[in-house]
Write a structure and sequence with these properties.
Elements lengths: L3 E7 L4 E6 L4 E5 H6 L4 H9 L12 E7 L3 E6 L7 E3 H6 L2 H16 L1
Antiparallel strand pairs: 1-2, 2-3, 4-5, 5-6
């Protein structure tokens, strides 16, 4: 399993950055992480397509909680703190997910 070498959370920039042991650097907007929450409720909403899981751009990660060697629990400024983000899941959130998220936000802004 791949583990991070460094984790930083910038509330000012609204971004979580992980540098992996192999030197790969990934950065995610806080709102994207909230929209991709792994908790049962958010996963069910995505699966059932009841409503898209969205988050305002102003949303912030207020706290990071290490969950052993497994991953992170993120505490968001909207009070949501159920999701645990395994390292493998964070590693899989690529530029494609970010691009899709930006397109989604652009459609909301244009409406």
């Amino acid at each position: 399993m791949d583990y991070p070498a460094d984790i930083s959370n910038s509330r000012a920039d609204g971004a979580l950055t992980i540098i992996w042991r192999d030197g790969t650097r990934q950065q995610w907007p806080h709102a994207l992480l909230r929209a991709h929450c792994k908790c049962t409720h958010c996963s069910a909403q995505r699966f059932l397509a009841v409503a898209p899981v969205t988050a305002p751009a102003a949303l912030r990660v207020e706290q990071l909680r290490m969950i052993g060697n497994y991953g992170l629990q993120l505490v968001f400024s909207d009070g949501h703190e159920r999701g645990i983000y395994p390292w493998s899941y964070l590693r899989s959130l690529t530029a494609d997910a970010q691009s899709g998220y930006r397109n989604h936000v652009g459609r909301i802004s244009a409406a």
